[in-house]
Design a protein that fits this description.
mainly beta, Porin
């Protein structure tokens, strides 16, 4: 529901605008920025109890190729995110790193202002690694399975030059992982983070 509201607000901004940072077929853009992965209050079906994953901020890179005017295919990559894992009643029980490459099909609205809204929908693959048990799970083998899920994207570019723009954006990513301790499954954790960030985008 929150994702739908974000997409609706972005579309409304485009309607109010009457091209500034316009992209044509064959263009591509490179974005350099930072993003914060903010897991929701995790719902879990683990036998061990409620598990939560904390926030983390990392540098990110986006590359987008325009297959048609205003329509691009974007790939999001990032420096590995690091998270503490907490278990209700036991505090921090683990650490993990993850990479969340996300491929999206995006539409950039045509308008005559310096603000160019866009929306996108795609697929995310999240791979977890360097899973480590600490605290109550110190010395135990902790594993988080990789995840596939849908990713929604919305944002706005503010033109600062003919080939440069500042971008603010938000994503909602469906991330669900099975958690194992010493090879035995203890359940599933739905991380489903909001990913909020800012970047400088260059058009080529």
């Amino acid at each position: 529901m929150k994702t739908l509201k974000i997409l609706a607000c972005t579309a409304a901004l485009a309607a109010l605008s009457a091209p500034a940072f316009a992209q044509s077929k064959g263009d591509f853009t490179l974005g350099l920025g930072v993003h914060s992965v903010m897991p929701r209050d995790s719902s879990s079906t683990t036998t061990a109890g409620q598990i939560t994953v904390d926030e983390n901020i990392r540098p990110t890179v986006t590359v987008e190729y325009f297959v048609a005017d205003n329509i691009g295919v974007e790939l999001l990559a990032a420096w590995p995110f690091e998270h503490d894992i907490k278990l209700q009643g036991a505090g921090k029980v683990g650490r993990t790193k993850h990479l969340p490459p996300t491929l999206s099909l995006q539409y950039h609205f045509t308008n005559s202002s310096n603000l160019t809204p866009f929306v996108g929908l795609g697929v995310n693959y999240t791979t977890f690694f360097d899973d480590t048990g600490v605290g109550a799970l110190a010395g135990q083998r902790l594993d988080l399975d990789d995840s596939w899920g849908i990713a929604a994207h919305a944002g706005v570019d503010y033109k600062v030059s003919d080939r440069g723009a500042l971008r603010l954006d938000v994503r909602y990513i469906d991330i669900e992982t099975d958690v194992k301790v010493n090879g035995a499954s203890i359940g599933t954790v739905k991380i489903d983070p909001w990913v909020i960030g800012a970047a400088y985008v260059m058009k080529f």
